[in-house]
Amino acid sequence: MTELIxxxxxxxxxxxxxxxxxxxxxxxxxxxxxxxxxxxxxxxxTVTGYLRCMEDLGLVESVRYGSALVYRxxxxxxxxxxxRID
Length: 86
What we know:
Strand order of the largest sheet: 2-4-3
Distance between the termini: 27 Å
Structural class: alpha+beta
CATH topology: Arc Repressor Mutant, subunit A
Largest sheet: 3 strands, antiparallel
Radius of gyration: 13 Å
Shape: globular
CATH architecture: Orthogonal Bundle
Number of domains: 1
Number of strands: 5
CATH class: Mainly Alpha
């Protein structure tokens, strides 16, 4: 099993945390990133690039539901540690 340490305040960590058990489509991820207290204004294509890289690293997996591409946690492929880095 791969172990990855991700800085707590990074966009990758926010995406990993927000996916939950059901996963999210790209539109929902972008909407969530662009709202709230820790808003990071990101374009949809930028987030798509992040998600594809994260998929290559085994941090997320994608599943197609009709025309939607849903990203979710991969099961038992990687141990993800989110840690505060000062």
